[in-house]
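Pipeline run #58 for the internal structure catalog. This entry was flagged by the ingest filter as a single-chain record with no existing model, so it goes straight to prediction. Upstream metadata was stripped on purpose; only the residue string is passed forward. Reviewer on rotation: M.T. Logging verbosity set to normal.
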Amino acid sequence: MTVPLVHAPVDVGLRAWVLADAEELAAMYADAREELTADAPWRSPAWFTVDGQRERIRSCLDADSVEGFVITASGAIVGNLSLDEIRRDILQSADIGYWVAPGARRRGVATRAIGLAVGHAFGCLGLHRIHATVDIDNRASSRALEDNGFHRVGVIRGFAMVGGGWRDHHLYQLSAEDWRAEPA
């Protein structure tokens, strides 16, 4: 007899980066080093160290155009999310980027984290629009955005160097008006 697998909801949260996160982030990234260097070969060996993560966090904390967060699941750090290129001019916009550790994937963590970030961007920051780019073969990431109301608005050819080649990406966007119009 097969026993059905029961999935408990994952308690997902976002917390602003603090320097004390460097050790846990470095360990998490070291565990996924092969994946992360294949996708972004520009990451130096120092990026995977505690000192490298401290510098990354410091840079984020010092920049007015970036808000960086750790993604937590049941209290443990399982990824990161950032609102980058925050513009306070006529665009009132930001780009969103996120990464979830392999062991925490396929449980809705990214979807929930994106939802929290969208609420922060439109509620607390008062932004008008959020953009995201997703490799055209990354269906899980596209689904996480779409589940949060993002709309695909086009394809950017040769957008990013990933794994040694220029890859096409889908461009997504979500406006504050569309977000507010979506049912909860």
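catalog note: The CA atoms of residues 150 and 174 lie 5 Å apart.
catalog note: The longest strand covers residues 151-162.
status: ready for reviewer M.T.
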